[in-house]
Design a protein that fits this description.
Elements lengths: L1 E8 L4 H11 L4 E6 L2 E6 L6 H10 L3 E5 L1
Antiparallel strand pairs: 1-3, 1-4, 2-3
């Protein structure tokens, strides 16, 4: 399992946080989501940065950076 911090653009309200959390939960274990960032844990054998990016985009936001 890998743990990563995601920097996310386009999150301005609590509603955005809930949407991002919901979409990320489909591809990773969500540890924390706050306005502008998320901490996730995922299995690199079944998920990758492209899936994380798509999940964030499906929530209406943009994944800016993974660290």
């Amino acid at each position: 399992m890998k743990t990563r911090t995601l920097k996310i653009a386009g999150m301005s309200r609590q509603h955005c946080v809930l949407n991002v959390k919901k979409e990320l939960a489909k591809v990773a274990t969500v540890k924390d989501v706050q306005i502008g960032s998320a901490l996730v844990e995922f299995n690199p054998a079944t998920s990758d940065s492209n899936l994380l990016k798509k999940a964030v985009a499906d929530a209406g936001c943009e994944l800016v950076h993974i660290s």
